[in-house]
Each structure stands twice: as structure tokens, then as C-alpha cells.
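Example 3.2
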Amino acid sequence: MQKKINTPSVTSFYSLNSTPVYLVVGLGNPGEKYKLNYHNAGFLSVDDLVSKNNSSWHLKNSFNAEVSEFYLNDNKIIGIKPNTFMNNSGDAVRKVLDFYKINLSNLIVVYDDFDLEFGTIRTRFDGSSGGHNGIESIINSIGEKFNRIRIGIRSDTNAILSASDIVLKNFSKDEQLHFADLYKEVNSIIYEFVHSHSDNINAETRSFIFK
């Protein structure tokens, strides 16, 4: 029997000055020991987004997440990092969407993808989880209709391993040297999408390492 999903309201939240609100979710596992794990590519990227916009994180127990708020021109951005570990990420996402009444078309989830090579970012709207537990949790909470930014984590050194074996390993020292390029590309995608006021993110593949 298929599980029924109660999707959030499709009415966008607007403040008194009619400012559109976007929710940017970074996926990962909380805790210092997981900080540089492949599975924390989403956390790391959204950390940089928040830092670059001179904002900071605040723990909101009612959301089970760390939350940050800032503006991109006339657009309000709410960034969150679920504090529930990867497998239960959907709980925090659902709570924030419901509280702010954010349209699903204004939701962007940033996360790691073992099927893509490191140096590659792929964007798309909707679809299955692809075996990613965090995305599966979000789909179970709100359905498949949301924007995704997928960060490749597969490389020549880890290609022989399964996804479950690699995601809790740290990015290599060489890969960490490319973090600034990774963050710049993720931020660019988010800025472009927010300023476009599009309903769906464009499906495309980008590279941030050029040989």
C-alpha cells in the first residue's frame, strides 16, 4: 500500500513588504567527527553560502535544525542544516516549510551524489532519491517535487567502493583543495535560481575542476 504524503501548502510566504522566501537545505550529519565526510558535502556548501552572506547559524530546537536567515537583494533566504542525522532529514525540512508556508518550488536541497564524479555538479527538479537516505527521508515527508543540487563525490580512488562504504570517509586532501571552487559554483547556481524567480531549477551539469 503506497504511503500517502501530505504535501505542504503551495502558498508562498510573503512578509509585509512582499519579499519572496527561499529555503536552502544542506544535507549532512551533525557533529565535528563528520564535518569533512563526503556525506556532508551539503552542510559544507551551505556553510559557505551563509558565511559569504555575513550570516551565522542558530540552533532551533522546534525545527530540529540549525537555521540562518539573510537576504539576496529583495529575496529572503532561510538556510537550514537538519540536526537529526541524514536518515531523518525530512522532519526538519517539513517543519520549516510548514512554519514559513514556503512553496515547494522555492525549496533547494544541496547534497552529495555517489553516481557523479567529484568535480561535477548536477541540478534537477523532482525524481527519485537515487538511494540517498537524506533525499529519501525528504521525499517521504513532502513528496518528490523540489529542486536539487547534487555534488559528485566519486573518484578514481573510491570508485571500487560502495556508496555506503565511502560516504562516511573524509574528502581527500587533494579534493579539499578544490572546496573554494565547489562552493563558488554551488553559490552561483543558488543565486541564479533565486534571481530568476523560476518555478523549477534548470536541469544541467556543471564542472568546477578544469584540467
